[in-house]
Design a protein that fits this description.
The longest helix has 21 residues. Strand 2 and strand 3 form a beta hairpin. The chain has about 140 residues and is of the alpha+beta class. A three-stranded antiparallel beta sheet has the order 1-3-2. The protein has two domains: about 80 residues, Cell Cycle, Chain A, CATH 3.30.1070; about 60 residues. About 50% of the residues lie in helices and about 20% in strands.
Length: about 140
């Protein structure tokens, strides 16, 4: 049986909680993920982490994913970029890291133009406000 090369951890947080409470939950997730990786023999500093956030009413489902080995290579290769709702969720969650990092974590490798184009198209198709992704769509942000 092949060994897994990725792990995922979900937590649901209330959108109305103070930011400090939400950040504490996210920090705990990162700590727990690192501990679990060590437990199974994976160096937590050698993996690629990706966040995604899905909104459901007053709640947000935050997912921390860790990729190593074949999954990490596949993620960073740019051969299978995210699309649709997955692209929106990943871009939103990783926007604070900047456009280069968000593009890489969304599966676009270093192709920022393709990432921005796909994100713009998806925003339009899904009826989101481009303002909420402004820092990722700014052509000077590269």
């Amino acid at each position: 049986m092949p060994r897994p090369t990725q792990a995922h951890l979900d937590r649901t947080v209330n959108k109305n909680q103070p930011l400090a409470v939400k950040q504490k939950t996210l920090s705990q997730m990162q700590y727990y993920m690192g501990a679990k990786l060590i437990e199974v023999g994976i160096d937590p500093q050698s993996v690629t982490y990706r966040w995604s956030v899905k909104n459901k009413g007053d709640e947000q489902i935050c997912t921390l994913s860790a990729f190593w080995g074949d999954s990490q290579e596949k993620l960073l290769s740019g051969k299978e970029p995210l699309t649709g709702a997955e692209l929106i969720d990943c871009a939103r969650a990783n926007a604070s890291a900047g456009v280069k990092t968000a593009a890489k974590l969304c599966g676009y490798s270093t192709n920022i133009e393709a990432f921005q184009s796909a994100l713009t198209q998806t925003i339009e198709e899904m009826g989101f406000s481009p303002d909420s992704f402004k820092n990722l769509l700014d052509t000077d942000a590269k």
